[in-house]
Design a protein that fits this description.
52% of the residues lie in helices and 10% in strands. The protein is mostly helical and 115 residues long.
Length: 115
Amino acid sequence: MLAEWYKWLGERIDLSLDLIIYLRTTPDTVFARMKGRGRAEESTVPLEYLSALHDTYEDWLVNNSIPEEDFDSQRNRHVIIIDANQTKENVAKQCRLRIQEFLHELTTGEQECNK
């Protein structure tokens, strides 16, 4: 159903990506945070699943080793990688800083976003 909805939207509006903010964490950090929250819907997610998901994101956003048609994305999009293994406050600070840098580069005509 979601794929059909995405396809329908894509036929009507431009869904191309300009920017992706990747909040990069280790699977162990994600697992510990999920356990710490104690949410029932997260209680059965195994560490192995989080590791596989992490590897897929790394291949897609960092290594560019997944064919773009598999994600229906463009290779020229910018990826800002934030180390999200730190506190929420530090992650928020880094996000603000990196988005400001991206917008500055965008408005001054520079084409490449520092990763």
